[in-house]
Amino acid sequence: MKIIVSGGGTGGHIYPALTLIRTLQRKISRLEVLYVGTHAGLEADIVPKEGIPFETVDLQGFKRSFTPENLLRAAKAVRGIGSAVRLVRRFQPDVVIGTGGYVCGPVLMAAGLLGIPSLIQEQNVIPGITNKILARFVTTIATGCQEANAAFPAAKVVFTGNPIRAEVMEPRSDAAYRAFDLEPGRKTILVSGGSRGARTINRAMVDVLKHYAGRQDVQLLHATGQGEYEDICRRIRAAGIDLSKAGNLQVRPYLYNMPQAMSIADLAVFRAGATGLAELTAKGIPAILVPYPYAAENHQEFNARAVARAGAARVILNKDLTGQALIENIDSMLSDESILAAMSEASRALGRPQAAETIAELIIELARSR
C-alpha cells in the first residue's frame, strides 16, 4: 500500500499526520509513505527527523486582506497544483491524506484530478478555509469534533475524533512523578501554552506560582516555552519566589515528554488547539482553557467553548486573563473534589483515544476501493 500524506505549517497539522502514519505502519507490513509539505514549514524540520521520505511543493499561504502580494501567491499556487499533479502521478499512491494547512490544497486537488481516493482530517470545531474548499474534491472527511460535521457534505463526513499519540494513554506512575521532581499524593496542575509558550499565560502564572508556593497539597508543573523561559524566571525572582525552596513548583522551558506529564495531571491550564484538547479529553483531564486569540477564524475559542459546554473545562479569554482570575478558578476547582470528578468524567466522555485507529481503517478501506 502506498500513501501520500500532506499537512504543514504548525504542529497541530503535522503531529496528527505523523500519528496516522505510525498507526498505519503498525497495521500494514509493506507501507510506502511520502510526506509532502513546504520547505518553509515546520514539517521540513520535523518529518525528515522521523525517518519519513519528504518532498516539497513551493507555496505560500494567502494574506487575509487583499494585497498585490496575494496575486503573486495565487500564481505560485497554480504552479503548485501542477507540481503536485506531477508528484502524485510519479508516486502513484493508493490514497492521499491531508491533515490541514495550505500545502494540502494542491496535493488533494491533484489526487481528485487523477481519480485517487483521498481523505482530509479536520481537527477543529470551525473548519479551516483549505478544508472547506477541499471538501468538494475529496472522498472522505474525518472530523475531530461533531460540531464541524455541518460544514461538510453529509455523505462524505465521518466523526472520528482527533488522532493522538499512543503514549498519551500511559498510566499514572511513580516514575512519572520522579521524572519531573514532583510528589505523588498532591494535586498536580500542568500548565502549558504550547511548544512556543504563551506570554499571557506565563505572566499570569507568576502570581499563581506565588500564591501556591510551599503548599503541601498542590504542585505545579509549568512549561513556559524556550523563548519565554529566561524572562519568566526573571519575573519569578522579582516576585520574591524561590523555586528551589518552594518544594512544589517546577518551571521548565519545555516538556520533552508531555504524555508523561499528562499522566500525572489532575488539572491543566492550556491553550485550545485541537491536538492538545484531544489529548486532554482522552485522558479525562479537567482544564482551564485560554484560547489563542489570533488563530484563524478564532477557531481556538470555538474549540474551547465546545469543551466548556460539555462540562469539561472553564474558559478565560486571553484579554481577561490575570493571575487572580487563574487563582480564583483553580481554588474553586480544587476546593471540592466532586467538581474535578464531574469535569474529569465529562472530559473523558468527549475523548476519542481510538481516533487514529478509526481513521487508519477508513484509509485502508479507501485503498481497497480503488
Give a brief description:
The protein is an alpha/beta fold. Helices cover 45% and strands 15% of the residues.
Q: How would you describe this protein?
A:
The protein is α/β, with parallel strands linked by helices. It has two domains: 2-164 and 353-369, 3-Layer(aba) Sandwich (Rossmann fold); 167-350, Glycogen Phosphorylase B (Rossmann fold, 3-Layer(aba) Sandwich), CATH 3.40.50. It is 45% helix and 15% strand. The protein has 15 helices and 13 strands. It has helices spanning 11-27, 43-49, 68-91, 104-113, 129-134, 174-179, 199-212, 229-238, 243-246, 258-263, 274-283, 299-309, 323-334, 337-350, 355-369, and strands spanning 2-6, 32-37, 54-56, 95-98, 118-122, 140-143, 157-159, 187-192, 218-223, 249-252, 267-270, 287-289, 313-315. Strands 3-2-1-4-5-6-7 form a seven-stranded parallel β-sheet, with helices on both faces. A six-stranded parallel β-sheet has the order 10-9-8-11-12-13, sandwiched between helices. Strand 8, helix 7 and strand 9 (218-223) form a beta-alpha-beta unit. Helix 1 (11-27) packs across helix 15 (355-369), helix 3 crosses helix 4 and helix 7 (199-212) crosses helix 13. Residues 60-66 and 68-75 have low confidence and may be disordered.
